[in-house]
Design goal:
The radius of gyration is 21 Å and the shape is globular. Helix 2 crosses helix 7 and helix 3 packs across helix 4. The chain is built from ten helices and 14 strands. The chain has a seven-stranded mixed β-sheet, with helices on both faces. Strands 11-12-14 form a three-stranded antiparallel β-sheet. It has a two-stranded parallel sheet with strand order 1-13. Strand 3, helix 4 and strand 4 form a beta-alpha-beta unit. With 357 residues, the protein is α/β, with parallel strands linked by helices.
Length: 357
């Protein structure tokens, strides 16, 4: 069976074992005679899978008991809206601008009050993570983006703040260990490290949820999902099921620590080619801010980058073109991308350099 070297930024590569398991039981889930997508979300079989998915998340991420786990449709972009709608309850909301998605989140907040940049890396085209922050009095929360897919930067550690912290972890959740208790709310679209597009995982401190604005439409309230075990309406059944399978896969790899070690090794294979290329490849991110999930780099000219991407595509590499906003090249090395693919890309890069010098 032909499998591409998939470096797509999202939707992204999924573990082959997970896809095969889903394929094998797609027509007959848990000996019910039905596919998971055919059965009632109120059924005992679905309820067991739903509960197990939450339990696996709690175990793998070491989520404290005073945090809710929610499954919500609408993607990360809807979370930009929901977080502000629920929690922008004071005069200001603070955003740390590390790229496009942070800016989009801040734009949504402005529908509910004043929003400002507590820090920004825009002065150097988002190649670093800001280390100094300025907060105004009467700030509801600070919003940060853990990993910046377009620019290839990632918070290496998270500082403590004196206001509630909301974190978009869409592109690096479960790629490394984080202390959930350092955050008041975490959200993450599943389609990069956890499954297919269609569901967002929300992990929220119960006491923080209690501070949310009450006068909101039903489906914009986090309480609607928390009070009904994410079953107020029909949940994204198949996406949650695939998250369940992926969480089992992570556990079978040895858990988050083992996955993080593998991710660091995979990224190093490609970063080493960049660093040892004598400037033929130029990494976009500062070394102390490099993402282990999205490796961004440039060649000498846009025409050469297009040629590299074209030759890579012919060799079976998918998704290595940079985002349209920044150009260049990008390799997204999410959890499910195998070491084999990273080694193959590194060899392709070395050969391309040899052929063009």
């Amino acid at each position: 069976m032909k499998r591409a070297y998939n470096f797509n930024a999202g939707p992204s590569a999924m573990p082959l074992e997970v896809l095969q398991e889903a394929q094998a039981e797609f027509l007959n889930y848990a000996d019910t005679g039905m596919s998971i997508i055919e059965m009632s979300h109120r059924s005992a079989d679905y309820a067991a899978m739903h509960a197990e998915t939450k339990a696996l998340l709690r175990e793998l991420m070491e989520i404290p008991e005073d945090y809710e786990i929610l499954f919500i449709q609408g993607g990360g972009s809807t979370q930009f809206l929901m977080t502000a709608a629920n929690f922008h309850t004071k005069k200001y909301a603070a955003y740390i601008n590390t790229g496009v998605w942070a800016k989009k989140a801040m734009a949504e907040a402005k529908f509910f009050g004043e929003a400002y940049e507590a820090a920004s890396s825009a002065d150097r085209n988002h190649c670093y993570i800001p280390q100094e922050y300025n907060f105004k009095e009467d700030t509801s929360y600070v919003h940060i983006t853990a990993n910046n897919t377009i620019y290839g930067t990632e918070w290496q550690s998270f500082p403590k703040f004196d206001v509630p912290v909301i974190c978009d972890m869409s592109s690096d959740i479960l790629s490394r260990k984080v202390n959930v208790a350092d955050f008041d709310l975490i959200y993450a679209g599943a389609q990069k490290n956890l499954g297919p597009a269609g569901v967002v995982i929300v992990i929220a401190k119960k006491s923080f949820l209690a501070t949310a604005r009450k006068e909101l439409p039903t489906m914009l309230k986090y309480s609607t999902f928390a009070d009904n075990d994410s079953l107020y309406n029909t949940p994204p059944v198949f996406a949650i099921y695939m998250v369940n399978k992926t969480l089992h896969w992570i556990k079978n790899q040895g858990g988050v620590d083992a996955v993080a070690k593998n991710n660091a090794a995979k990224a190093k294979v490609i970063y080493d080619v960049i660093d040892n290329s004598n400037g033929f490849y130029k990494g976009h991110a500062d070394k102390d801010a490099r993402s282990l999930m999205n490796i961004t780099f440039n060649l000498a000219a846009p025409e050469m980058e297009k040629d590299f991407v074209a030759k890579g595509k012919a060799a079976g590499f998918v998704g290595i073109g940079g985002h349209r906003l920044v150009g260049g090249c990008r390799a997204s090395t999410y959890n499910a991308v195998p070491m084999e693919a990273c080694v193959a890309l590194a060899e392709c890069m070395k050969q391309y350099q040899a052929d063009h010098q």
